[in-house]
Amino acid sequence: MDWYLDRSEQVGDLRRELSGYLTRHAVPGSDAQIADAELIVSEAVGNAIRHTGGPVWLSLAWNTELPVLRVYDIGAGFDTDRLPSPDADPEALLADSGRGLLIIQALAPEVSASMRAHAGVVLSVTLPVPRRTTLSHDPPRRRTSVLPALDEARPEGGFDKETFLRAIVVQLSQTLEASHGPVAAEAAVAQVGTDVGGRMEEEFRAAEGIVGRMTPEQLGRCFVRLKHAIDGGFSVLEATPERIVLLNTACPFGESVQHAPALCRMTSSVFGGIAARNSPTDVAVLLEERIAVGDPGCRVVVSLIPPPDDAAAFAHHYRAPATTDDGS
User: Fold this and answer.
1) Distance between CA atoms of 119 and 102, rounded to whole angstroms?
2) Taken in order 77, 79, 81, 87, is the CA torsion positive or negative?
3) Is 243 in a helix, a strand, or coil?
4) Is 231 left (phi over 0), alpha (psi -120 to 50) or beta?
5) Which of the four, 93, 108, 201, 289, has the lowest number of CB atoms within 10 Å?
6) Which has the closest alpha carbon to 236: 278, 273, 275, 280?
7) Which of 209, 145, 204 is nearest to 174 (CA)?
């Protein structure tokens, strides 16, 4: 998440938005930690605006247990030597208008500051709010006759929404029936996503004439193409050998997804399955932000290399096969 502030009056709105975001993704019962995080952010932003007189840019990344907030001031910056040490004299700090920095140091697990290349300072603060872990479901792909035929793809590219939704409903029904009753919703959706995503990959390969493993750029185009075909609003923010970052402004399921957030596993399973089939190593998908739980948009990070240990519990994992579906 990112914010731009140029007035101290905006800090209240920032606190409310940040609190909502942290609440949606935090371990249940983290109210006290979220309150601490709100105070940390208020002090960090307030200090930046008061001491630099310029606007402030904030960026929050949450791909490990604790989120990391970075505050970029665009003014002259403050003296990074003013960051208090653990044994600093509180009275001296208060006398030197250091109350905000003292509060940040006391509540945040980690704090650091550095000068930016051209002007200003970036303050990096780890917020004390633990993120919920997730369970991974990586079922083997099944091939069934009810999946869309390749000749059903539209001339302009991709399967249409009706075809996609039909496949979801039928595959979900078969998965639940095969399990002899209701099973965990996310496990069922993961199975359907693996099956349908495989066929969508085949259609994309046929349309683009791709043989062999796809590059990160091709994977990004594949993800966007299949989502746009079903009225999703995905775009690629970043595509590197290490990861693909996608943003989404519209869910293909519309408002109904907020009543069935397990459907987000569809995106994870489709992207993760396709990425794993085109990777020499296992991959992971982090649903960092989700419309289904109230975020204004989705942010999906597809890691093309195994994530570090401190991030593994918050992502869905997909195994790379010995060979890709096209035999390479």
Assistant:
1) 24
2) negative
3) strand
4) left
5) 93
6) 275
7) 145
DSSP string, 30-89: -HHHHHHHHHHHHHHHHHHHHHH-S-EEEEEE-SSSS-EEEEEE-SS---GGGSPPTT--
Q: Are 65 and 28 in contact (CB under 8 A)?
A: no
Transcribe 13-38 into DSSP letters.
Answer: HHHHHHHHHHHHHBPTT-HHHHHHHH
The DSSP annotation for 89-148 comes to -HHHHHHTT-HHHHHHHHH-SEEEEEE-SSSSEEEEEE-S-PBPP-----PPP---TTSP
DSSP state of 318: E
- Pairing relationship of beta strands 234-239 and 243-248 according to DSSP bridges: antiparallel
pTM of the full structure: 0.71
List the structure tokens of 84.
């208090």
- Half-sphere exposure of residue 103, counting CA atoms within 13 Å on the CB side? 18
Closest Cα to residue 272, out of 201, 328, 326, 180? 201
CA dihedral 219, 221, 227, 230 (to 10 degrees): -130
Which amino acid would we find at residue 311?
A
User: Tens digit of pLDDT for each residue in 259-317?
Assistant: 667 778 889 999 999 999 999 999 999 999 999 889 999 999 999 998 888 888 999 99
Q: How far is CA 123 from the centre of its chain?
A: 22
Q: Hey, how many other C-beta atoms are within 10 angstroms of the C-beta on 62?
A: 23
Regarding predicted confidence, which is higher, 327 or 303? 303
Q: Are 196 and 168 in contact (CB under 8 A)?
A: yes
CB 275 within 8 A of CB 302: yes
Instruction: Give the tens place of pLDDT for each residue, 25-70.
Output: 999 999 999 999 999 998 888 878 777 666 888 999 998 999 999 9
